[in-house]
Amino acid sequence: MLSKFWKEEQGTMSILITGGVLYTPQTVYDPGAILLEGTVIRAVGPAGSFAVPEGTRTMETPGQRIIPGLIDVHLHGFGGHHVMGPGLAEVIRALPSQGTTTFLPSSVSFPLPDVLRGLEEMAEVLAHPPVGALAPGIHMEGPWISPKRSGGMRPEYCYPLRRADLEACLSAARGTVRMITLAPEEGEVLDVLPWLVERGIIPSIGHSDATYDQVTRAVALGLNHATHAFNAMRPFLHRDPGVVGGMLDHEAITAELIADGFHVHPPAMRTLVRAKGLDRVCLISDAMFVAGTPEGVYDWDNRKIVHKGETSRFPDGAPAGSAMMLNRMLQVSVEQAGFSFADAVQMASEVPARVLGLRKGRLLPGYDADVVVLQENYRPSCTIIGGEIIFQE
Q1: Is the pTM above the cut of 0.90?
Q2: pLDDT tens digits, one per residue of 330-342
Q3: Is the pLDDT at 127 greater than 60, yes or no?
Q4: For residues 103 and 351, what is the distance between their CA atoms, to the nearest angstrom?
Q5: Is residue 208 domain-shared with residue 181, that is, in the same domain?
Q6: How many domains does one find in the chain?
Q7: CB neighbour list of residue 389: distance below 8 Å, 6 or more residues apart
Q8: Which of 113, 146, 181, 341 is the most buried if burial means most Cβ atoms within 10 Å?
Q9: How many angstroms separate the Cα of 372 from the Cα of each of 3, 39, 248?
Q10: How far apart are the C-alpha atoms of 48 and 313, rounded to whole Å?
Q11: Which residues of 287-296 are buried (b: 16+ CB within 10 A; e: fewer)?
C-alpha cells in the first residue's frame, strides 16, 4: 500500500497512465494513454494523442495492460477474513491488491438471529469504511433458499421467506442491501419481488429447485439476475428445463459465472456466454475467507474446508465457495475457456457495473476513475479508485 504521505501529496492532481495496452469498449490502444482528473476519466486514446495539464503525474506502463477496475458482486471473504462481520473492514483494505475496486460483500445462510447480527456488523463497517475497495451495498445470499439446493450452506439454515423476516433483515442492514439471492418457490418470494424492485434491491435466483414455469413467473415480477450459474440450481433436462433452462432462455436475466475452471467446466463457460451473450454474463469470485491464505485445512461453521491450489472444497470434494479472485479468473477465462482478454474484462467490469447501475467498468471520458494496471502474470501493479492510487507494487 502507498504511504499516507503519497495519498496526501496526490490529492486531486491529474494522473496520466501511458505506454501500456489500454482497453476501451470500442478500441484497444497499443500503446494507449488515459488521463484522470480528480475522480473521473477525462481522456483516453493513443499514447501522445491529447494534451496533458501541467503538473500531471505520469505513470509509464510499457508491457502492461490498462483496464477498468474489477467489480465483484459476490464475495464472502479474503485473506482469512469473513465479510459477514467486522472482518469486512480488512477485506475492503485488501481487495485493491487483487485489482478489485468495487464489490458487494455477501452474507451466507445462518439461523436468522445470526444473519441479523451479521448484517448489523456489516452495516456498521459500511457506515464508516476504511480506504480500499468500494462497497455500494450488501448481497444477501439467502437464507430464503431451497434446502434441496443448499450447496455449501447447511439445509437447516434455509427457510421459506416471510415478509416480516425480510423487513427485519433490511432494517438490520440499515438500507444497505443491494441484492438478495432467493428461491422463488420458497415462501412469499413471488409476493415480495415487485416490492424489492421498487426499493432498488436486485432479486437474484439461486440455490433454487424451481421449475421453468416458476422462473418465468418470477421474471415477470422483476427477477433479472442469477446467482453462480449452473451451481446449486435445478439442472436443465429436455422435458424439465428447470432453473438452468429459465436462466438461459430469459433475456432479462444476467447470469453470474464463477470462472475458476472448477465450479464450471470451460466448455460450459463457453456455452453460457453463447446462450446469454457477453452483456448478460457477469464474472464473480464467490471467494471465501480462505482466498489469499496459505494452503491448508480450515474450520468454518464447525466444518472443515480444504484449501488447495486455488480451490476451496469440503472433504468430500464438493465446492465450498471459491479461493480465486477476479484477476486470476481473467486468466482462466482466456487460457482455459478461450475468451479474448477484452471479452473477459467486459464480463468482470462493464457487465457488473451495469447490474449495479454504476458509472464504472468502462475506460471512457466521464466514467469513474477506477483503473487497474495488470502485469503479464495478471497481478496488479497499480490500482486506482476514484482517482487515488490505493495500491501500488
Answers
A1: yes
A2: 999 999 999 999 9
A3: yes
A4: 13
A5: yes
A6: 2
A7: 2, 6, 7, 10, 15, 382, 383
A8: 181
A9: 19, 14, 31
A10: 49
A11: bbbbbbbeee
pLDDT classification of 4: cutoffs 50, 70, 90: very low
279 in active site: no
- Same domain for 237 and 124? yes
Query: Is the peptide bond prior to 31 cis by the omega test (within 30 degrees of 0)?
Result: yes
Q: What is the pLDDT of residue 12?
A: 63
Place of cell 509509464: 60
Say if residue 183 is in the same domain as residue 293. Answer: yes
* Segment 195-208 mean pLDDT: 98
Q: Judge residue 302's burial from the number of C-beta atoms within 10 Å of its C-beta, 0-12 exposed, 13-18 middle, 19 or more buried.
A: exposed
Position 241 pLDDT exceeds 80: yes
Q: Count other C-beta atoms under 10 Å from residue 191's C-beta.
A: 11
β-strand pairing of 380-385 with 371-374: antiparallel
Domain range for 182: 70-356
Residues 351 and 367 grouped into a single domain:
no
Judge whether residue 2 has pLDDT over 50: no
Task: Verify that 80 and 19 share a domain, yes or no.
Answer: no
Residue 169 CB burial class (10 angstroms; 0-12, 13-18, ≥19)? buried
| pLDDT single digits (tens) 70-102 | 999 999 999 999 999 999 999 999 999 999 999
What b-and-e string marks burial along 103-128, b requiring 16 or more CB atoms within 10 Å of the CB? bbbbbbbbeeebbbebbebbbebbee
Cβ(99)–Cβ(326) below 8 Å:
yes
More reliable by pLDDT, 10 or 387: 387
Catalytic residue from among 260, 286, 368, 370? 286
Asked if pLDDT for residue 363 goes beyond 50, the answer is yes
- CATH assignment of the domain containing 308: 3.20.20.140
**Alpha carbon distance 146, 122 (integer Å):** 24
- Which residue do the cell numbers 433436462 mark? 237
Residues 263 and 137 in one domain: yes
